[in-house]
Each structure stands twice: as C-alpha cells, then as structure tokens.
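Appendix B. Raw example, untouched.
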Amino acid sequence: MLALWRFGMRHRVVPFLIVGALSTLCNLFMLFMLTHFAGLWYIYSELCAFCISYGVTFTLHRVWTFRGSSKSKMSQIMLHLPFQILTLAADESMLYVLVEYAGLWYPLGQFITSSLLAGISFFATRYIFAAKTSPVT
C-alpha cells in the first residue's frame, strides 16, 4: 500500500485527485446552491460554478499538485483556460444529455461528467504545468 502511495505522489496522481475532489465539491456545492436556492437553470448554474471552481483548480494545481513549474503563470493560464473551456463545453453537453434524456438528477449528472472527464484532464493538466522538479515525497 505504501508503494502505491509513493507511486501516486511521485507521478502527482494523488495530489491531482485531491485537488479534483476539492474542485468537484466546490462545483457541486455552487451548482446546487445556485439552482436550488437562487432558481437558476442548472446549465447557467454550472457555468457560474465552473468559474468559481476554476479558480480553486488552477491555484491548487499551480501551487501544490504541479508546484515548481518553470513556466510563467500567464503562459500556464493561456494553455489551461482554453483547455478548461473545451472541457466545460463537453461537461455542459454531457450534463444536458444526462439530465434531459437520461432523467438523472443534475448533481448526479454533474458528478458523472466530472468523473468521466477527469482522466483526460489529468494528462492535459500535467503537460500544462510540466515542471523541472524532483518528485513530491
């Protein structure tokens, strides 16, 4: 088990999953609050939730998951934001299909779409924040 933990930390999988979980919780919380209490349509709520959780995701990936990057913050944003916008488009489309056609509750649909897009996001984010650092221990 310890070897698996070390592998996950060395390849930044564990910090990525922790940041992803925090970002997902932030996103789901905002999605629910804006839809249920503010009365926004769930698609609009997801757009707002994305903007908030994006700040959490970018900041935590930069300072913790892929810390020590040799790239400037601006160059990372210029790569990360367009990728995240494409991910958002896929997320919104999948969410709409799961809610409107599969009849799922919108938070469950959002959790499913986030989970499906996480793998693609890991490899793209790892590339964007590529660092010349030693592994995290």
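End of appendix B.
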